[in-house]
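Build the 3D complex.
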Amino acid sequence: MTFSPALEAHFERFLQSCPPGRQRSALVPMLLYAQDETGSVTPELVEEISRRLALAPVEVDEVVTYYSMLRKKPMGKYHIQVCTNISCLLTGGQQLWEHACRKLGIGNKEVTPDGLFSLEEVECIGACSWAPALQVNYDFHHEVTPEALDRLIDTLRELR
Amino acid sequence: MLYNEPSPLEVKVLTRRFAPAGPASLDTYLSTDGYAAFRKALAMQPGEIIEEVKASNLRGRGGAGFPTGMKWGFVPRSSPQPKYIVANGDESEPGTCKDRLLMENDPHQLIEGMMIAGLAVDAHAGYIYVRGEFRYLIEIVDRAIDEARQRGYLGKNILGSSFDFDVHTHTGAGAYECGEESALLESLEGKRGIPRIRPPFPAVVGAFQCPTVLNNVETFCAVPAILRDGGAAFAALGTPRNGGTRLFCLSGHVNRPGVYELPMGFNLLRMIEEVGGGVRGGKKLKAVIPGGSSCPVLKADECDLAMDFDTLAKAKSMLGSGGVVVMDEDTCMVQAALRIMRFYAHESCGWCVPCREGTLWLRKLLARFHEGQGTPTDIDLIGDLARNMLGRTFCPLGDAAAMPTIAFVEKFRDEFEAHLEGRSCPHG
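Done.
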């Protein structure tokens, strides 16, 4: 597998930050950053990273299945993650989540037919004082109303 | 960036460089006493640094409240193994959103705190473990690290002192459990984040099986002020045995939710009324989760207390990670308990059976209740199940799920009874 020069530079930084003989330490960062480029953790990616870190593929796979952000199927170009945990629940996060499902016509961890959007109901994302909150990919959106979510989705749809 | 208006009642020690303009650059940091504490620590003996931190009465801001100086003192400084400094920036406790601000607005303060810990225990490398969702923070902290390296504040022979120290960020990839110290270390080593059996504690066998100082981000961020102004001055800001200020994250049904730096021991009711602007919509206060979802809920009439570790322990709750979740009179406590249990059931790593099975069973019971299908014996069953999880797991996640559940059932039994046998939730 070949990756972009930017991703290879990240890999290099991860590997250099490991103590001598501890390159396995770079595994989780390598998987997450690679997934950002490839869209999901494919068997080929597992194979490639296990080769680079001198691990058995199964040792990589058991790590992949542990972390909730690592996924084997691609999500939409804009992965909308709505928090419904306690602080968001108290301020309308549940209604926001239900609104998002209706608006996009999809459910948890599903992707719209055009591949543009996907939805995930997530646990606390650390935005409790500015709830309800969501993330689109890595970007935070605070104090989100259903109307603001509609506008956000419309804007992203125009950007494509 | 600042996400809420500051409060005039704040005492800004850790947040004093927070500004709308964004992260404090190295130049801004240097012009506001940045790295002065490190310079001072360079001239001190390691034991003196640890004594200064002990004198500050700084206690771990991640939730457990363990005295930081004592923790540092457990590291065998003379060990021939390398030693490591690890900052826990996995911030995932529901209700908590403060470490994010510290990394975003003042990354050099965190780096400096870790460097001082490095001097104290003879460590030369540090890792900042940041939850995977906080990618923008990794970018901010990496830029600060690069800046510090270029200007000789990190790397070899720092400021001509012959002390070497370097710091690296390390991303997680979605796992509450990795905020638990031993699971974090497993994750740092490239493994599934399951807890380690202790003892040995990380101070002796930590990162890469070497002696390790592992503290919360906010804990390290308090260290420069302690060295600069003296441990006694920091201690004096708080209450006995609870030194300094802390970042409280007000959320839920308040008029002015936000993160506010207040002295330890600040009265909880006053925090809600005067800092948070009172309960939203003029409603009455029903309950408060005082320190993140793991902390047993307090009823409104239990909230007239000082927010420090010892007072909260006496009230049979915890100060936790500073997440103050305010609930008004219309909040359904069954729904709150259910949502919190859904979280723990999702996040249990599955390593310990009482936690793996207990959280799932409790989630099912609470869901049944909320749907109006609960039976009278279920109320006691919830309490019994939760009590049987206590103390029976390798890490505190089992307790963190059980303790708030016990409190919800004991303190709001009437609300559970109101849901019995087909009756719909009285709060809609």
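Chain A has two domains: 5-64, 78-159.
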